[in-house]
């Protein structure tokens, strides 16, 4: 809504996946979700489960199409520039964009991890709260959650690794900023664990390093150096013209660490959690502090996913479409700062309110326990006539 | 003008028409929640009539927006930035309304009424501001050579656009009442019809005002005399049919007629605009046209293949959903708290 010049520039390409997403994914998702919620005991259990699988499928292809649009912004393919607009000349190239497949695997794996972690984390809270006689359900659900988290976070890790290796070549500035490297690194390159940068002077203030690791992460070998931002900035100036190409380094550096850190934490929690819930040694259920850690991990995927998107999007600075179109060129000239300010304040307040309500509702639902829905359905069944009975409708 | 450009202009029109037909009664049901229902039991009954479908009905709007972006990026840019605050209000309305369906059923009983109000007010706000948007748009907006609109308050809010906003809200409300009469068993069914009988009287006044203002405030009669007149007559006839349907207890007829009224209204707006997409009040040279605002032929062709392949499936499962939920909702299914 406030990117009109951007929309004019990329609409020919960017709009297509959005429209396809709405047509293929949104319709299916919303229709079958409605069917799934409201047809329990109206249709056969087999058909009922098909409904929710279709919702899952639709959500996944929804991610695919929106990421197809985003991947074009990260790594434009299949276009020509005509009269100052990007024109699509190969729809297939939009879908075979390597960036899309990295992003898609990363996002889907991240979503699966989130699902597993929420399940495991909320089950952990219930195990803390409930009496022994009520815990068998949550002992099952916590295991399912942990298994999902395990596979999900492993997949995230692999997809993320591939994505970062591509980044070294495609968007070196983003990579260097996420690692906080201003100068070209030594060969082999060390990974910086924590650091703080002086963004005005383009200098690192302090940093703690781990030798070799960055070379391994970037090139899968014990040697190879990484270009620093100062070096890359000069190259970009030569290629695209005089401009500031430094992204917000500290934000990127720390977002990346929050993402990767919580990602690793979830993997660790999943491994240890499964280890301590095996039949021989069920330490997890006896140690309250362990359950607390697991419960608090419910918030980890939210932080990790958000931080990950910050890296992807902020790291593209100063571009909206990498190498083609800048943020400055993209904005709507006719949407005033006041409009933007008002709308953003309202969005912020509204979504904060909704988040609080949602957390309250989750707690409320959890208190009802696992049998609540079944009881409600039985009551409903008793109080109403058979819906398939002729007298039930005209 | 290529045939694909024409196809996508029509397709966007169809998507908006589908949106107002389907989501129109959802809005009407939402408004009825706090204006027609007498108790929580009836409110639950009302929500149950649209519970499984309202979410899918909203997708018509998203798809219309997506199709507009893909096939007419210049139209999308001009409209979405030009109407930033109007669309922002619509969005807020859709958000609070959307969450209320779930929240009202899940929150503590003492908070339920708050979310009832959110649902109802969202349902009023959205069609009203869509009326404002479309009717101010057909009067012409200050669009510059680049397609950027810098409009003032009276460009958005004027007598005609207010009439348009009220008319669209009223049409949605009536469409919702007809839907309620068609989909319920219980005291609310008769009450919905009584409300409708009264409101149709007001709608006639609104339609006359609308037609008169359309004549004075737009160039529709000059450019498309025949189709404009014809569609206005169709709208009046459909309104009369719906009114008769309400009086004679022919609920399906009344509902179909009120739905077709909304479709005819969208058709009127789109045929009146043709071959323009947006009208510049500065000079006709700056009008956004079907011919100069579209995507490239290649994009339109790819999009057409995809849309024409998958649209039948989408329509089929949507139709099937309505078949599954064809039954009336009984009032005695709901228990009082």
From TrEMBL, chain B:
> What span is annotated as the signal peptide, if there is one?
none
Q: Name one GO cellular component term.
A: plasma membrane
The keyword Nucleotidyltransferase is assigned to this record:
no
Identification of the protein by name = Cytochrome d ubiquinol oxidase, subunit II
- What would you give as a GO molecular function for this chain, any one? metal ion binding
- Species lineage: Bacteria, Bacillati, Bacillota, Bacilli, Lactobacillales
State the annotated membrane topology for this chain.
Multi-pass membrane protein
Q: Which GO terms describe its biological process?
A: aerobic electron transport chain
Q: Which UniProt keywords apply?
A: Cell membrane, Electron transport, Heme, Iron, Membrane, Metal-binding, Transmembrane, Transmembrane helix, Transport
